[in-house]
Structure prediction request, 226 residues.
Amino acid sequence: MYKLYIANKNYSSWSLRAWLLMRELSFPFEEEIFPFTENSWEEYKKRCPGGLVPWLKDGDKEVWDSFAIAEYLAESHARVWPEDTSARAWARSVAAEMHSGFPALRMQCPMSCGVRIALTEISAPLQKDISRINELWLEGLNRFGGPFLAGEKFTALDAFFAPVVFRIRTYDLPMEDKCSEYAEHLLSIGSMREWEEAALKETWREPEHESDMIKYGVLVEDLRIT
Ligand SMILES: N[C@@H](CCC(=O)N[C@@H](CS)C(=O)NCC(=O)O)C(=O)O
Prediction:
């Protein structure tokens, strides 16, 4: 049985990727949450190799970083990436682009599943990131026929964009119709709903995440339990 270490479900976008991939593809695992604190990095460093989560343990093997976890799982589970070679090449490239890019989206719209925020403006760098996401999603949906980004089946690529889907809803980001439909579809799958329900039940509030999420906007709704 795998063991996956993650952070708070409300905030932890990187944790969501690995968790969703494993849950949606029904890989058996136990999870443990290390809640964020003011001193997370020091705390995490004592526990996991890179000082960051997600962190996967498989017996005596340890893997950290969401992309490394996806690739590790792909060695033993064929369903992680699309079956078709060209869909797989595209999906890996786009997941890597997501993994290493989109700095304005990350900074100006940090993930917080349980709140709704009205942005005061959409800055040029943020618009550039949003436009590129629309472009990539339209390419995937048109080329492979949906309802997922690389075709009929959920793959790691959808897991990599899952935090973006929560951000689109939290910050009401402008998306093309077909991309909004994809976002709605991903929000509706069982494992995304399970993550969201758990996020809404969390009572941890980490001050830095709470202030970061309203740096570029105004809080209009908080659906989390208090
Ligand atoms: N590139 C890494 C990023 C991991 C990361 O930044 N994780 C955050 C949680 S979302 C973390 O562990 N933060 C610890 C801290 O803030 O001290 C991945 O893909 O896993």
